[in-house]
Amino acid sequence: MADISIRKWIRWESHSPTPPTSTIVLTSPQRRFVDIRVLLPLPTPPDSELPLEQLEWAIAGTSTSSPVLNPKTKEVEYSHCVWSHWIDSRVNNRDAGADEGDNYPVEGHPELTLERGRMVNPASGRVEGYEEMWVAGEVRAVEGVGCVVLEYDADLKGEEGWARGERGKQGEDERVGRGMVVRLGGYVQGFLRDGGDVRVERWVWEGERGKWEKRVRIGSGGLKGGEGVIPVEFVTEVGGQMEVGDEVMGVGGRRWRVVEKSLV
C-alpha cells in the first residue's frame, strides 16, 4: 500500500514537540521510499537552491510493516516498521543500516499516525527515544499517473568508478553511487549519492496552477546546481509514458531505470 507521510512534529525524550524540518516520506506500493528532511525555513522563492547545511537527512530504500496484536483483545495495537537504508546522506557506504519504530493509530484521527522508537538525535549525537506525529497525504493520480519509481545503481570504488572519471584517487574505501526517484500523487522526491556528493529534490503538483513546482533542491560538490542531475522534472513531464524496464540517461552518464509503476 502506497502512502505519503508528512511530519507534523518530533519530540525527543522529555523535550517539547518541535517542527524543525519540512519532512515528507513517499512510499510506493512495493514499499520503496524516499525520505527528505530539510531544516526550516524553506526558501523564498521556493525554487531557490539551498545550502547543504540545510539538509538534515535524506534516506532512500525499502520498508516493511508487521502488525502487533494486543495480547488480550487480539486486535492490532500497533505496527512495527523497519526502514532499510539503500542510500543515506549521513553514511557513504553500501551498508547504510536501518532504523525501526512502532506506529500507533491516533483515536478519532484516522489521518494521523504516532511513531515511537529510538535513534540518534542529530542535536546531541546520542541515541534517544523519540515520538513523531505524521499526517497522511492524499494518494491520488495526477495527470493519469499514480506512482512511478526510478533507480540508479553503480559500483563506485576508487577512481575508476566515478562518474565521467573527473575525480582523482579516493582511496580504497568503497563509495556509493545510487539514486532513487519516487513520484506519488502530487509529490516527486529524488535522492542521489555519488561518492561524497549528494543531491536531493522535491517537486509538488499545484493543482490550481495546473503545473509541477520545485520546492527543494540541495546539492554538494559535483552534484550542486544545474538541471537534470536527478531526472525529477523529467518524471513530472513524461511519467505517464514510462513503463517498467525503461531507462533514462541522466547528467553524468547515469542510467536510471524504471523499476515500478502503478495507478495508485
From TrEMBL:
It is found in: Cytoplasm; Nucleus. Gene3D superfamilies: Protein HRI1, N-terminal domain (2.40.128.320). Keywords: Cytoplasm, Nucleus. GO terms for cellular component: cytoplasm; nucleus. Transmembrane segments: none annotated. The keyword Ribonucleoprotein does not apply. Its main location: cytoplasm. InterPro entries: Hri1, Hri1_N, Hri1_N_sf. Belongs to the HRI1 family. This is Protein HRI1. It comes from Podospora anserina (strain S / ATCC MYA-4624 / DSM 980 / FGSC 10383) (Pleurage anserina). The lineage of its organism: Eukaryota, Fungi, Dikarya, Ascomycota, Pezizomycotina.
